[in-house]
Amino acid sequence: MAERPAERPRPTASVARFGFTDEHAEQRLRAAGWWATDGPADGAGSVLAAFARSPEPDQALRGAERIREADEAAWPELLAALRADAALRGRLLAVLGTSTALTDFLVANPGQWRRLAGAGTAPEEYPADLLAAVRPPAGPLTGAAAEAALRAAYRGLLLEVAAADLAHLVQPEVPELPYAEVADRLTTLADAALRAGLAVAEHEQGDGGAVDTARLAVVAMGKCGGRELNYVSDVDVIFVGDGDLQVATRVAAGMLRVVGRACFEVDAALRPEGKAGALVRTLDGHEAYYAKWARTWEFQALLKARPAAGDAALGGRYVELVTPLVWSAAERENFVTDVQQMRRRVERHVPAELVDRELKLGRGGLRDVEFAVQLLQLVHGRADTALRSASTIEALRALGAGGYVGRADAAELEASYEFLRTVEHRLQLRRLRRTHLFPDPARTAELRWLARACGVRPSRGRGEGEVLLTEFRRHLQRIRRLHEKLFYRPLLDAVARVPTAALRLTTEQAASRLAALGYTAPDGALHHIRALTTGVSRRAAIQQTLLPVLLDLLADTPDPDGGLLAYRRVSEALAETPWYLRVLRDEPAVVERLAMLLGTAKLVPDLLVRAPEVLQLLGDPERLAGRSPEEVARSLRAAARRQPGLNAAVAAARSLRRHELLRVACADLLGLLDVPAVCGALSSVWSAVLQAALAAAIRAKAAEVGGEPARIAVIGMGRLGGAELGYSSDADVLFVCRPAEGADDGAALKFATAVAETVRKVLGAPSQDPALQVDANLRPEGRQGPLVRTLDSYRAYYARWGEVWEAQALLRARFVAGDPDLGNEFVAAIDPVRYPEGGLDAAKVREVRRIKARVETERMPRGADPTVHAKLGRGGLADVEWTAQLWQLRYAHEIPALRTMSTPEALRALGAAGLAAEADVGHLVEAWQLATRARNAATLARGKPVDQLPTSGRELAAVARVFGYSADDDPGEFLDYYRRTTRRAHAVVQRLFYED
What segment(s) does the record annotate as region Adenylyl removase (predicted)? Predict the structure, then answer.
């Protein structure tokens, strides 16, 4: 018979009655002076009772023991204070039993426990405390010294906030600090840290009075703006500058560094254009952006904007500027739809296995409350200024008081929101790490600790953890119910207007039917149906006929809810287009294909509302997929050439590119074009856009200077040069010029540079379409080098300074725009560089390998899965392309077939020349085409550039559907196929690239 496992040693019963479970608890109590031979030492009973009420007595005891070991000399003082001072006892033991991170702080900083005796620091004194830490009497601190001082002072004040927040757990007679007050104190502390960090940054930049030439305001956003901060939060900010923006930007960057290293991460990604935009903008710059380019979610974010640090007057002017924009945002087209779509998108990103434990983003989580409140604020707050609060709780109370939300609903939502925020605070306090994940129910010890930290006690024979879990689930369900009730107003009985027996149902029955079809938000679907079918117009009557069919078709797509939302967007945008509904009514194939496209690819509706004519091609596969790239390029150039000026020419080119992108995307998704055809079509239209923009820019600049002092050619590089562009690719180029007859090099270079800069600027201007970025960073000397060189200058540079990576980059160089004679001469001039006589010596081969290893290390995003990263992953695009290019550098001088810009052609040439086995070549070509198509499919599905393939959810299902997997197939089978194919290719790369 197997032996029973030995029971874990338990503490003595006399110690266990105080909540200790550690077998060494009595020994520790004796060492600390709290336990005599037969029980509590004199005067220690109240201390042990406090331990018993601590969220985790053993943890609190170990923390006290560590404090004693860290400062033995001060221990008698602390011991006496704990026995005599109930307030200190409650605060300290509550902190020790809750937060291991704050315990570490107390151990590392002996004497900091004294902060918890007495009244503590008043919140209004936080700024002065932190400023004093970085500006000691000896002089202001900078660099690492300032960061260390700010970190210690900030953590000390955070300790005080936490102690005040937790004290009621150990001292029942102490009133619990309201959630709103805790959040307000944390926000005040964050504001003080921003101000202190700004002071350090200003001092670091202040030599010679440079800092006086600029003004900088720090505007708090998000939870900080709403005075709702957690213990561990990113603090979202926007910077507003005046005067010397370079100085202001350096100060802002310094503040980000100082505060980020000392206190918390400061995130400026909510600024115009996000991380790609300027860190600091003037008021005028912000105004211009919000007036022309801002999207709905940006106005929603601005609802919480609040000056927090820096120039208060400038920050106030910024808030005055954006306030009217925020409260008119609801008038934007599709405003409510955009907000609802955003919430669904956020929710879909939560992993399925965590959705029931996600406090913040999951169903019934904090975001459900915040989105519902903000949507109601933005809709009704235009006329009712009482709703214009940045605080979720205050706004919710105002909505209830104003009748926009039932009083009972508002009270329930507020209680559930505060419950989840309290749980979130306790989870973050333990290790001072940002987390929003409720513990796994199987981890009973962690649940018990969290329950006690939240003030939950046993009830009716159930332990604290079980009670907390029940409460957590109850609050999630309540929030989700109220969210759906508020977020998807008005009432959904409008589905009865659809004259189809299947949809002549009550509201409850309609929602059940849509849920059975696969709609995850049936209430939202019914909302869209009502919007499309309301009224007695002809348009509404046709929609009533179409929708029953369309709903079933969308149900078979990866994202039925997103597809219906997209259909509504397209229908509303094309409401005045006379042929739109007629085509859908009379051509069933168009409806079927449109449903597949809208439920699969988010990029399609974005393009379709601006290029609706492509919809008519869906009924004719030959017209959809049959246009030759050359014909498209000619049409685009001719249309741009007919325009009267530069901007008009570029607008015409953009319009035709939009049409072509949508046409190719539709044909691609419907399986009518293979990978080479897609890449060739996208590359051809990009080249045509460059040709049109270059010609228009030359005409414009020539008119300004009275002639053309230079001939200009654009050389395509990278994927553009290889005619292998995807939907998310930039255009890598080189600009080369030649002086016209009678012109000198200086005049020619000045003219050509102005033209090149104009081309980059007009094409790279912000647009709703996929980006048109012209990247010239592969030029000699990179970004530090001149944008344009003469042909002779390129020859001289490559002859004297060219490195092996530049020769590798030139392998895909080809003429794409401008003067063809000059372009062809450039290509002929670089042939000896990219096809070096004698190939590469061993040192250069090693250099290529070293560079590839460095690129993989530096450019692979942190946390990315290398098995599904299409660009840099194992067996992905970079693996295959670098392998082909290394062999081209080594042997193209003697094997003409290797002198190609196409990666698949170069690989096949390797096989034909006997340099690689045909099977190996087959594996590489297959992996390259698979990675290219998968990357394109993921970009279309997500609606924005992406290199890593999705590994779960609707986006993975969409990518799998593009590859022919049915709705009944597990999309994970596609990932298995992808990994299997690229794994084989990677093994080939290891042999061909790294082995001689």
Answer: 1-491
